[in-house]
Input
Amino acid sequence: MVTEFIENHPYEELRVGQSAELQRTLTRDDIVLFGKVSGDLNPTHVDAEYARGSATGAITGHSLWSSGLISSLLGNLLPGPGTVYRKQDMQFHRPVVLDDTVTARIKVREKGDNNRVVFDCDVVNQRGETVMTGLAEVIAPSEKISVPKAELPEVSVRHHDSYADLLESVRGLDPIPTAVIHPCDAKSLQGTIEAAQDGMIAPLLIGPEARIRAVAEEQGLDLAGYRIIDVAHSHAAAARAVELVHEGAAEILMKGSLHTDEVLGAVVSRSTGIRTERRMSHIFAMDVPTYPKLLLITDAAVNIAPDLTAKADICQNAIDLAHTFGVEEPRLAILSAVETVNPHIQSTLEAAALCKMADRGQIKGGLLDGPLAMDNAISLEAARTKGIDSPVAGQADVLVAPDLEAGNILAKQLTFMAHADAAGIVLGARVPIVLTSRADSVRARRASAATAVLHAHALRRNAVSGFKR
Output
């Protein structure tokens, strides 16, 4: 790995008229981080609705963010390491709007005694308009310095913590009897025990008892008080779990160390399964650090190429789960590559049809709009730029993917590139089904269990009230 160095310009090297500059684009993360560090929570910087009524009509950056660029130039480039900042005189002429690209410049104005140097400073935006002007006074270093450029740790801006709210919402609820299918590896068994210790589930461990106990001993897990149902192999475990649902002994199915197809095969069996009239679908409940609320993505694991009828059920399942989370009228963005209906792109036709089905009451309980491209589904700025007037655009609660490939890619991109956590369950069967992955974090596993528990309690309430899906 090549190490980068920062080298300074000592007092003796500096000449009147010598200059340096840098460019920077103001991002939402810049604003959030600056507000967090400074404590400046002026709504013109952090509240899009409030900012819409301001003079600029958009979110603006903190004024001192611009002067911070001057500090960066002085400390990194001219004079550079060893510089002591003494004085700053600033005049601000116009705000920096979100996504503006500005150029900050400094120029040596005069040199004085005791290594004192005065710089002219200015910041201009991409339109050539002056944002800030002023003078900066520093004490320049006397000696030449060359130091390795520091590599700061990545900073993830989390606008909320939806999983904290989710886990808090299940606190105090009765634990739900849960059939855990073939928990024969460390992660699945440990996740099960943690969910039980949190008071979320009452687990029924189904699988080869000797293997389950061997894993517990290896991991130092205490199985005292937990029921183990001994069966020969994973197929038998899936079949027995479904039987427990029929018997009323289990209200959640939880996948252990077996393939998803084995679980779903037992669930959809025509003779012994637990299907309903609703098509089953998978829903990711994602906590995305840069999105202001819990985001549902569907379908990313069950329906490979759903037709219009299947997509209607996929939407309804997502609406039902959003209701479980307390979202009274969830906003569903039906995704495609474009935001206009194009006869050559099948997903745009189906998106339009789904919206009309919702208008006619064939899909109930949510607001649907589509087709929407990804940018205008989640970004108000992008929706406004493209002239989209919609109660869904820019503020979706649910992203409905055109097919499994798109949904799976989207969810994994958010997980591995945006540091999101992904809890997930399958709905449409008689009970919620938790499909965990070996790549899931402990936080995501707990959130998946909490999601299923909340939905199981919702199904209990619906059964008491006579609701039928």
